[in-house]
Give the backbone structure.
Amino acid sequence: MNMQQAIKMTAAETALVDAYTAQIGDLPGDGSVLSVRDTLVHELRTAGLPTRRVESWHYTDLRTLLRAVPAADPTAFADRVEALVAGSTVLSVRNGHADLKGNAPEGVTIRSYTDSLLDGSAAAGLAVLGSDDAIGRINGGLVRGGLELTIADGTELEDPLEIQLVQSMGQAHTRFPVSFGAGTKATVIERHLSTDAGESLVSTVNDVTVGEGADIIWIILQQQGVADTHLGQIRFDLAKDAKLYLFVINAGGKLVRQEIHGKTSGEGADFKLRGINLLGGESHTDVTFTLGHNVPHTTSTEIIRNVVFDRAKGVFQGKILVAKDAQKTDARMACNTLLLSDDADLSSKPELEIFADDVQCGHGATVTDIDHTQLFYMLARGIPENKARAMLVNAFVAEIVEELEDEPLVEALEGVISTWLDKHA
Amino acid sequence: MLEIKNLHARIAEDGTEIIRGLDLTVKAGEVAAIMGPNGSGKSTLSYILSGREDYEVTEGDILYNGESILELDASERAAMGIFLAFQYPVEIPGVATMQFLKVAMNEQRKYRGEDELTTPEFMRRVKAAAAELKIAPEMLRRPVNVGFSGGEKKRAEILQMALLEPKLCVLDETDSGLDIDALKIVADGVNALRSPDRAVIVITHYQRLLDYIIPDTVHVLYKGQVIKSGDKTLAHELEANGYADLIEAAA
């Protein structure tokens, strides 16, 4: 008896598969790329979007939450916006199309990712991370463009590099393979914006390799509209003595999943994750993180701060794996949450999987309301309650922004946070 | 200026009655000391005056310039000129001291219908007041009370008091944890604020602070009531004889 039953596809699944079918012959790629795409879309069609029964999607049932895929509007125009930090080199990506005009800073080579699809060099990178990698699958099937950045050994960029993704309605799928050479120093700001209230769906996959002794700050600033779906994934690999400081700020979107998957491959590598999730309305925001400490003597710290208003739902999943040989690993993870309404919800799932026996690892999670003693102290100085609350919420997240120690960047991010809080608190 | 009439109050959470029929009048220009053994309700009284919501007034009234303030929240009372110097000033990581001072001063001004201070004017006032209290500029660059020593916290409280120019100052055990030099600086700061239109309530355990801030009246609090009032000599009597005799006489 044949027990195999075709699943009944949801509207969103149908729309994604249809989007692929409609673009056959038009999606960029050589034979090897197209064959990977076919496999990915076939998997999507047979497995469907992940449900809560898939462990890594337990708190974000994508199949239920992604009700529809917004239709593209060929007339929708995404305008570029001013750089977050004055003086940055802006790499503009509008409605999924990367703009290659403009000057690359010295030491930085910029190539169209579409070209890498066309000549097949992108094929290997399109592989998914595992059978539950829905973002890799959707993105790999439908990706049209993006940028490939190569930063030459020893390059020190004085000004930030801003990858500015602006979306107006419809869907866009982009990729950014970025390779930082040995001894490089740079700040990259990956910024996701939408220009209007129309619905959009964007997926972005970044593949970042950090060379020996490089010192990189990477900011993901997601400020999409209240009707938007954001599926983001950043993969990274740290060489010997490489440092990556990843800062994720979610301050927008309706359905957001930002995945972070990394590994340390060289001794002395250091990874820092700082995350700020500003959640309001009916939004659902998921930050899922895995880190493999694969070699001895590597360190990581992760601090996530969630501020949850209204009926918003937040998820943080953090998993640190320490390989058998990765002695002297030092890893600390913390997830702190301010729940500011009775209907707000946050699920936090920290996990440590340690196979080495000489390591220092820890994790902690707290969920609190505003500190009443602090609130009273501010009131007793004549600060009205709503203002005092806003200041305390701001303080809860500002503390980790200030760690960045780059004044214009700190100021810009604090501006984003206070603008968001003024609207929601 | 302040009239407390037959005040009864309890802890909101568990209903424990702390203030049990307290009467107290403090006139403009007066410095009133409130003394009493541990647990007599001194700190609770300071919190109730400033509007902390953890306490519930069940009977009686508090009149400030003739008007009941029971319905006003803490920020409104502060803007009307009631200032509490905390026994344990609260640390607020992430809020810069200068921002905190500026917001507090300007919010109070807004409440009273006055113009906000310009940044240069604000800076000028802070610098002048900080210099008087020997507060180093580095301290003002830290988050509110974070990393301050006990003495620094108390001086920071007096700095806030000087900048906010309240009409009724309530000092809750401001002397606790201060060495003699710090005590003098704090006392000088308070004395500088003495004026005919301002009243000060000094809550203290010990006579020591009252050598530097000479009170006009002294009131002894016990089990939530004022059991004896007098002039500054009462404080000396208490220092010499303790509270036992008074408590016995009141029982």
Summary: The CA atoms of residues 84 and 308 of chain A lie 25 Å apart. Chain A touches chain B through 24 residues (CB under 8 Å).
